[in-house]
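Task 17 of the worksheet. Students: predict the tertiary structure of the chain below and write it out as C-alpha cells. Keep your answer in the requested format; marks are given for formatting as well as content.
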Amino acid sequence: MLKQHLIRKKIKIAFANSVKNPPVIVFTAGKVGSSTVYSSLKNALPQSSLFHLHFLSEKGIEQAKLFFKRNNAKIPDHLIIAGFLSRKIRKQFDHVNWKIITLVRDPIAQELSSVYQMADRVNSDLFSKDSKSALLEQIQYLKNRFSCFEETNNSIINWFDRELKSCFGIDVYKYAFNHKDGYQIISQNNVKVLIIRLESMDTCFNRAIKQFLKIDEPIIQLNSNFADQKWYNAQYKFVKNNLAITKRVCDKYYTTRYVQHFYTRDMIQALIEKWVG
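Model answer:
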C-alpha cells in the first residue's frame, strides 16, 4: 500500500503542470531499445518527469499481471504505474498535452531477444542449459516458434494498434514514416509522438530527441540493457549466429503492415538475407 501511495504521489507531481510541461512517456513494446532511451533522458534531463512503460491499455496491463502471477513473480513497478496512468488517460485525456516516445525494431530480432529475456520464467528447463545439444534444441524450438507466426495475433506486430492507438488515438500507419532519417514526429491534437527505428538510433537519436523535446543540450546516448551483461549471453550469441530461418517464414514477418511501413525494400531484403539459411 505504501508503494502504491508513493507511486500515486509521483504521478500527481508529474502531471501538476501537464499543459505547459508534460511528462515524457517512453512507451514501447518490449526489447526495442526503450531502456537506452529512458536511461539517456533520465541522465540528460534529471529534473524532467519520465515514465517507462510497455502497457497502458486495460487489457494489456491485466494480461501482463497475469503472466507474472502465473510464474509466481512479483508484479513489477512499471505495471503498477501503468495502472494509475491508464486511469488518468481515461479520465483526463483532453486536459494533458501528451508526449510519447516509442520505437520499432526488426520483429524477428525483437522476438528472439524477448525469448531470452524471459528464459528464466518461460521454458526455463530448456534455456537454463548451455551444452551443445541444449543449444541445438533451443534453435529448433525457435524455428518452430517462428514458423507458427500469425500476423493477427502477434503482440509485437499489433502493439501500435493494441496500445498506442487504443490509448492515445494515434494510428501510426496514417502517417508516412521518414525512412531516410530513421525517425518521425507525429502531432495530433494534444498528443505528440516520436517514433525511432532502432536500427537507425545510433545516427539519429540525438537529433530526434532534441527536435522532439525542443531542447538545445546534446543528449548522450547511454546504451542500456546489453545482452552481453545477461546470464544467457553466450547462449543468445550462439543461437543468434547459428539460427537459420526459411525465406517462407521471413516473408510472413516482413510482408506485415508493421514492417512494410517502417522499413524500405532494401532494408527488408537485408533482413531476409541475415536470417535465411
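Marker's comment: The mean pLDDT is 93. Strands lie at 24-27, 50-53, 98-104, 183-188, 191-197.
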